Amino acid sequence: MRSRKGAPGIVDVANRAGVSPATVSRYFNIPDIVRGPTRQRIEAAARDLGYIRNRMAGALHTRFSGTFGLIVPTIDNAIFAEMIEAFSARLQALDRTMLIAAHGYNLELETAIVRSLLERRIDGIALTGIDHDPVALNMLAQRDVPVISIWNHDEAAELPCVGADNEAAGEQIATHILELGHRDVALIFPDANGNDRARDRLSGVLKRFKASGLQLPESRKLQCAYDVGEVKRVAHRLLKGDAPSAIICGNDIIAHGVMFAAQSIGVEIPNQLSVVGIGDFGGSEYFEPGLTTIRLPAKRIGITAAETLLSMSETGQMPNPFHQPIEFQLKVRGSTKPYM
Amino acid sequence: MRSRKGAPGIVDVANRAGVSPATVSRYFNIPDIVRGPTRQRIEAAARDLGYIRNRMAGALHTRFSGTFGLIVPTIDNAIFAEMIEAFSARLQALDRTMLIAAHGYNLELETAIVRSLLERRIDGIALTGIDHDPVALNMLAQRDVPVISIWNHDEAAELPCVGADNEAAGEQIATHILELGHRDVALIFPDANGNDRARDRLSGVLKRFKASGLQLPESRKLQCAYDVGEVKRVAHRLLKGDAPSAIICGNDIIAHGVMFAAQSIGVEIPNQLSVVGIGDFGGSEYFEPGLTTIRLPAKRIGITAAETLLSMSETGQMPNPFHQPIEFQLKVRGSTKPYM
DNA sequence: AACAAAAATGCAAACGTTTTCATTTTGGTA
DNA sequence: TACCAAAATGAAAACGTTTGCATTTTTGTT
Predict the structure, then answer these.
(1) Cα-to-chain-centroid distance, residue B106
(2) Phi and psi (nearest 5°) for A209?
(3) pLDDT value at B282 more than 80
């Protein structure tokens, strides 16, 4: 249980520079209000001593820790990773830091994480998705900590959100498939439990089919864990039997699995089968053939989320507009073609 | 500049429970030393008030913040993401949190990040790779903050390391290719600048070739940015000209790009071309054909790193053994086959 | 050169915990 | 029942900053 070596503090710097601690503090926070000569003495003293300010001590007083929280279902997923990186980079540029944690689609765990982050007095927090444990939301509200919901978009959401309308994305990808003339379509989606993004996408797809007067038989609605191996198995079974002419996947990862499965049994994409995903992370564009999908701009979400949170924290105001829609975009690539 | 609503503090809890703040503090840190009845009163008071402890205030005194830092080149990379997730999850289970940041292979930025993390008084930090700016290392050493180097392994390293021997990995994958009888082999590696993992892998491969008395012409040593699009272009050019019989890629991502490139111009893998990567993240196993590669156990590295750091922080001792080798493993899959 | 206004600095009291040391309470024993 | 050691609790001094207010220094004006 080693105690840190007596690292120099602000008063050590002050003594060496021949000024008061208050002035040193001001130098670090608002350099402009200390005069040139004084500033130089402080700089020299800090440099000589190797002083590194203690933000925790400062935060005790100001109540701003300069770190923000980000909770995601999982870090190990290309499209979240892209968003996380952007969120982190934006904060870094703003001299802030990021505490991140994953809950693996377990909302109870999410609540525990929120508590843990609150113990660290984060200045704001971004939660993935719209649905959350009221207990967690209460803790945040009680302390007046800025919260936003990212990734999904819903005008009715109680939290400010920064994300794309996943239901609309589902509709759009379904539209694409229908416009290509496909009628026998299968769906492979992840479990919607604790995953409002997946739920909304699926509901968008179904809505669109219904609007076209098409009824998807239950046997065409497949569910699958978030694991390429399992996806391949599910897809194999589907393709070896009475194969549909197109498959709509709940996300790009699943689409990749389907494409591999098709390839491994010699089903040609897009000639014999059209495949689409939703998400469009880095890899999908370069797939062979390229994956037709809906591009959800992960980077933009990350950046906007960081900026929104910071602004909420500094102004104490809700963002305007309250819900920030992030536009998505259909990317038509080689994995789809007209039926027949 | 909103100030947080007067959230209840430890003294509010103490008053409500009719005990002193000291006792409440003890309750939260070492519950066993407060008597049953007292404990219950404290529990009730804390619950009623919705008290959430302030670890920053505590850390001011104990000098342990309960958060650890992790610096990676990039978060948005499947294999790092896997490690990050494991590191984070392990800390979470130990009631600690993780501050993470990426430097994009820019060592100067890494130093700035180290400083920023030190300002938050992290209890320890993991840096990716062996090579680091002495300035950063100095700051850490001066403050006696536990540091480890992860991902790579080198018996000569000055920092404790938790990782696989990337040079040996390079040798092993080269051995595999040579044993399959390939003689005309091309290499596609990322820029080794500020990336000791890439440098060591490449040097391992070259070492092995030299040992076999084979001289790789410079034209067979290709360099390529970490971007699937560029990889595809580079590979296209290579395959359309005087194509080698095998390509060794510096990592799995590059290997994926090569496989897509081959596929797009009808070069059959493994019949006309063998391809190998190094890394083996989630996706590679399920590729079609599966990618032959060296499995670097990212999860294990993340977990071991977290545990090592925590133990260093608690005991104040260097880990034993000082360097912790993480075993890697050749995974032979469908992307390679004997020459001819 | 003298003065007022403005700018820079210093003093000291917070901020919310933890911990040492002293004091009280408890439980067991004679 | 009285006493003692051990266990539980309390009082108060840290921990390293920031900031309101008071004071000093500078700057600009006449």
Answers:
(1) 16
(2) -65, -45
(3) no
